[in-house]
Amino acid sequence: MSRAPAQLPLGVGLRDDATFESFYPGANTSLMSRIAGQLDADGELFLYLWGAPGSGRSHLLQAACHEASNRDLRALYLPLGELGHFPPLILEEIERLDLVAIDDIDSVIGRPRWEEGLFHAYNRLRDAGKRLVVAANVAPRQLPVKLPDLASRLAWGVTFHLQPLDDLERLHALQLRARIRGMQLPDEVARYILHRGPRRLDELFEELATLDRASLSAQRKLTIPFVKQALGW
């Protein structure tokens, strides 16, 4: 297997922009620090994070895989919302990896074969001393798990609730992402985008990507009139 977390067997890649540097934590600083340090010698073996869609769960899991790659370690990102139609055979031998990041675990809960596969995967990763970070839209105790042994495994490690960003933090998150793209996003323009754009941050970032392409093509700075024109608002 490649040393890079490119997910070659499943063709699931990582977004280049899904890094810790591009994540604005707000009240989630401690959570981000624990995930970023999970591969340290004293890092947690198991982490579970939950939050609403668009809260940054997938970003953080992919950032953890990027961090593993930066350390020349092997990682695998498994978004089960996309891969749940595969049998749980995709979990076989994951203990050979240094880090496994399982996203949307709630999408396969309640399916006996998947629950059994996840139960055995937890055990193998523990026995091998490898790291696992799991994300879902609810806390472990709120998952409708049918296999009691898996329910106990999901409670291992440390659980974090991803706190939503307030309006000012959302503005800062948008400006951080703009700076990483090499764009200048004035406060008044950022406020306009937040007011007129979608509520979810991941969808806002997609609008920002559209603005980036449009501004490069037109050689224009980001102003409210240009945003209106480029996004059809």
Blueprint of the fold:
Blueprint lengths: L28 H8 L9 E5 L6 H14 L4 E5 H4 L15 E5 L8 H17 L2 E6 L11 H7 L3 E4 L5 H14 L6 H10 L4 H18 L5 H8 L2
Parallel strand pairs: 1-4, 1-5, 2-3, 3-4
Helix pairs in contact: 6-7, 6-8, 8-9
Organism: Candidatus Halomonas stercoripullorum
Protein name: DnaA regulatory inactivator Hda
Plain-language structure description:
It is a single chain. By secondary structure, this protein is of the alpha/beta class. Helix content is 43%, strand content 11%. Helix 3 links the parallel strand 2 and strand 3. The longest helix is centred in the last third of the chain and has 18 residues, at 201-218. The model is unreliable at 1-9 (pLDDT under 50).
Descriptors:
5-stranded parallel beta sheet; alpha/beta; 233 residues; disordered N terminus
SS-derived structural category: alpha/beta
User: Beta-sheet strand percentage?
Assistant: 5-15%
Low-confidence regions: 1-9
Rg calc:
19 Å
Distance between the termini: 47 Å
Give a short overview.
By secondary structure, the chain is of the alpha/beta class. The protein has helices at 29-36, 57-70, 80-83, 112-128, 148-154, 167-180, 187-196, 201-218, 224-231, and strands at 46-50, 75-79, 99-103, 131-136, 158-161. A five-stranded parallel sheet has the order 2-3-4-1-5, sandwiched between helices.
